[in-house]
Amino acid sequence: MTPHEKDPLVVSGPSLSLRYPRADDAPRLFELASDPLVTRWFSWGPYAEVAQAEGWIAAQPAKRESGEIMDFLIVDPSAGALGVTGLTEIAVRDRRATVGSWLGQPYWGSGANFEAKAMIAALAFQRLGVERLTAWANTRNGRSQRALERVGFRREGVLHAWHRHGDEMHDVVVFALVRAAWERSPLAEVPVRIEGTPPPAFIVG
Ligand SMILES: CC(C)(COP(=O)(O)OP(=O)(O)OC[C@H]1O[C@@H](n2cnc3c(N)ncnc32)[C@H](O)[C@@H]1OP(=O)(O)O)[C@@H](O)C(=O)NCCC(=O)NCCS
Questions:
Q1: Whose alpha carbon is nearest atom 3 of ligand 1?
Q2: Is the CB of 36 within 6 Å of ligand 1?
Q3: What is the mean pLDDT of the chain?
Q4: How far is the centre of ligand 1, averaged over its atoms, from the C-alpha of 102 (Å)?
């Protein structure tokens, strides 16, 4: 076990928190991600069996260690896990990362996306030294595009045939939140507490 895994990152906002997924989260993740509307725009899913959630959870520590992806459960103290948000596509030289998120359908429109974005942005800009957060949204995923703009991301343009899902290539809208825009955004006003040690591969600044 590496030092940061003994002292895992936990990010807390006013009502929600982010923590790494654990083996016993599998049934809840299966419940949320077996909904085809939730995974409609993803290269994976919907989950058909709990073993897929178990496999995803089991793969996380190695992915954090290698710098491939650092995913967190978005957790409500009474409802439990609401969804997932995380950082990937870390570019150390250019100090940037990509954020991706999904919520179980009952939590769409609940404000959980706003608080989760406030927590992941605080982690990225304050703790990891990121200068730019990128987000991708399928050109047909109007809800995701609107949700990103609402929290302060700026639409930059369309990238054609950018994501491959099975045999299909998808166009995506690229959004960005750069440090100066984050500082001026409502996300930066949310009080966020960051505890624990980040995986070294994710510290860029
Ligand atoms: C993307 C996601 C995390 C956003 O969270 P959310 O809680 O649904 O987002 P919000 O409700 O805060 O914002 C959505 C906005 O889109 C609007 N909207 C809803 N459907 C829309 C559509 N088809 N086209 C355009 N806008 C739409 C909503 O009205 C809302 O805007 P408003 O508050 O100004 O009215 C969540 O919807 C989700 O998990 N979706 C499935 C997974 C996914 O697509 N992830 C993103 C991949 S890029």
A1: 102
A2: no
A3: 97
A4: 10
The CATH homologous superfamily to which domain 3-130+183-195 belongs is Gcn5-related N-acetyltransferase (GNAT) (3.40.630.30)
Q: How far is residue 102's CA from residue 104's CA, in Å, rounded to a whole number?
A: 7
Confidence of residue 1 (pLDDT cuts 50, 70, 90): low
Residues 94-119 have pLDDT tens digits of 999 999 999 999 999 999 999 999 99
Which numbered atom of ligand 1 lies nearest the CA of 116? 3
Cα-to-centroid distance, 205 and ligand 1 (Å): 31
Please state the three-class secondary structure of the chain as a single string.
CCHHHHCCCEEECCCCEEECCCHHHHHHHHHHHCCHHHHCCCCCCCCCCHHHHHHHHHHHHHHHHHCCEEEEEEEECCCEEEEEEEEEEEECCCCEEEEEEEECHHHCCCCHHHHHHHHHHHHHHHHHCCCEEEEEEECCCHHHHHHHHHCCCEEEEEEEEEEEECCEEEEEEEEEEEHHHHHHCHHHHCCCEEECCCCHHHCCC
Domains of the chain: which residue ranges? 3-130+183-195
Q: In this structure, how many other beta carbons lie within 10 angstroms of the beta carbon of residue 64?
A: 25
